[in-house]
Specification:
By secondary structure, this protein is an alpha/beta fold. It has two domains: about 200 residues, 3-Layer(aba) Sandwich (Rossmann fold); about 220 residues, 2-Layer Sandwich (Nucleotidyltransferase, domain 5). About 40% of the residues lie in helices and about 20% in strands. The protein contains 16 helices and 17 strands. It has an eight-stranded mixed sheet with strand order 3-4-5-2-6-7-1-8. Strands 14-13-10-11-12-15 form a six-stranded mixed sheet. A three-stranded antiparallel sheet has the order 9-16-17. The radius of gyration is 27 Å and the shape is elongated.
């Protein structure tokens, strides 16, 4: 049988009391990622199924942001708890989303916007898993009313994200109620609390902190339980200070060094406006190539190499076809780039195909989608926060000035499911240097030097 940690016991007791005494309280539970909130939830479900099994037929309901994998995983955890108990031979599964122990049923539902969940009733307990990723309207209109007839106890589980989520709203309401009546409704246990009882967890999170950096959004939200602000600066002043290096800009490679490249391509519609765009419309979209020098001796704990930005190429108002030969020459003959990640989205696809054909497997096309751009942004922040990404020292160039303008103006927008977007507001400029920088970090992550193999 599962042995609960002290902080899990602190949550279990008031939840069970609220159910048994029909208090109908709403709780919010924040536990650092992999800290045991799902184990606790499954244990509570097992205890309630056993308690209500021989009473009149009643249901508990648990919803998750998606049916697969989240709802399925929740059902598996409850089945494991039941199989470890004295009622292992008594429970049954129904309709693919219900677990039943005599008269008590646990119903597992998806909280996806398109999921049809109306008609279910919760009399024992209502659980909202990963509440920060559940839509407020979906919860308010379809899930919350499920417990109205029985004044059901409700538990919201999750980790923090931004300051606009359902979990954050429930949390703030609970904290206000606590100030008024002294009844604890919000429970928060960050990674340091979890680590007190699990040395292996401590080692893992310390590794994540070294890899991501203390100020990385994923480390702050998933482990420190500190919400990020929506539509805030993407790169803070502290991070910009970390990004600034002391090395000089280079026009050619140094002997024995490894070089990589990231290419952000301009939109063809803007290119066709001509070469005068830089003077007439200095904020117009451009093609930017960022050259980075790898330094494996300054890698992070997970082996990610340090990257020094050593050169920029910047073209505005030049057609992609006019750049083909120049790009090949720069990448192949000047820098001997070992990895080049190139924007292959939309009009960038023909350019990436041309470069791959000309330069072979060293060229990696990158298609921007919501998930891929989110990962790209998180990886860029991790490189900055860990100190393994540095920009060359000021040289008075237009490229240097534009680079820092974009770094300062870049914003981030955080979405559900721990994803984000980063950009420069079109009213303030463009993000070509920003995206090219993110792509050169991707090139570093993609590069793995060949090692000699014995016969």
């Amino acid at each position: 049988m599962l042995i609960l940690r002290p902080y899990q016991e602190e949550i279990l007791k008031p939840v069970m009391a609220s159910v048994s005494e029909e208090k109908g309280l709403t709780f919010s539970v924040e536990i650092a990622r992999q800290g045991g909130k799902n184990e606790l939830s499954a244990y509570i479900e097992y205890l309630l199924l056993a308690s209500y099994a021989l009473r009149e037929p009643q249901n508990m309901i648990k919803c998750s942001p998606s049916f697969k994998p989240q709802t399925v995983i929740s059902m598996m955890r409850l089945k494991d708890r039941l199989n470890d108990s004295d009622v292992r031979a008594e429970w049954t599964a129904e309709l693919g989303y219900i677990i039943r122990l005599y008269n008590a049923r646990a119903i597992f539902l998806s909280a996806e916007e398109t999921a049809n969940v109306v008609g279910h009733t919760a009399r024992i307990l209502l659980e909202i898993d990963e509440s920060q990723d559940v839509g407020k309207d979906k919860y308010t209109k379809e899930f919350k009313p499920m417990g109205a007839t029985g004044n059901v106890t409700t538990v919201h589980y999750g980790t923090t994200w931004d300051d606009t989520t359902l979990l954050e709203e429930i949390k703030q309401t609970n904290l206000e109620l606590e100030r008024k009546d002294g009844v604890r409704r919000h429970f928060r246990y960050d990674w340091q609390e979890v680590a007190k009882y699990n040395p292996s967890y401590l080692a893992y999170v310390e590794g994540e902190r070294a890899r991501l950096g203390d100020n990385h959004p994923l480390f702050l939200t998933q482990y420190c339980l500190v919400p990020v602000r929506g539509n805030s600066r993407f790169i803070s002043s502290q991070q910009r200070a970390q990004l600034q290096g002391e090395h000089k800009r280079q026009q050619q490679p140094s002997p024995g060094k490894i070089y990589i490249a990231g290419i952000d391509l301009a939109g063809e519609a803007e290119e066709e406006e001509g070469a005068r765009l830089r003077t007439l419309k200095p904020r117009q979209d451009a093609t930017v190539v960022t050259i980075g020098e790898l330094n494996a001796s300054h890698s992070t704990l997970d082996g990610s190499p340090a990257v020094r930005v050593v050169e920029h190429y910047w073209w505005t108002g030049k057609k992609h076809t006019d750049l083909h030969a120049q790009l090949v020459d720069i990448l192949k003959n000047v820098w001997h780039s070992k990895r080049t990640v190139v924007d292959a989205t939309g009009v960038g696809q023909p350019v990436s195909s041309f470069l791959k054909e000309a330069l072979g497997s060293s060229v990696i096309p990158f298609t921007f989608t919501q998930p891929s751009k989110s990962e790209l942004g998180f990886n860029l922040l991790a490189a900055v926060d860990s100190g393994r990404l540095k920009m060359y020292a000021g040289d008075g160039s237009a490229e240097y000035r534009e680079f820092w303008i974009e770094m300062e103006k870049a914003k981030s927008h955080y979405r559900p499911s721990q994803t984000m977007s980063f950009y420069v507001d079109p009213a303030q400029g463009h993000d070509d240097f920003l995206m090219s920088l993110a792509l050169v970090v991707e090139a570093a992550n993609q590069y793995s030097p060949r090692s000699a193999k014995g016969r």
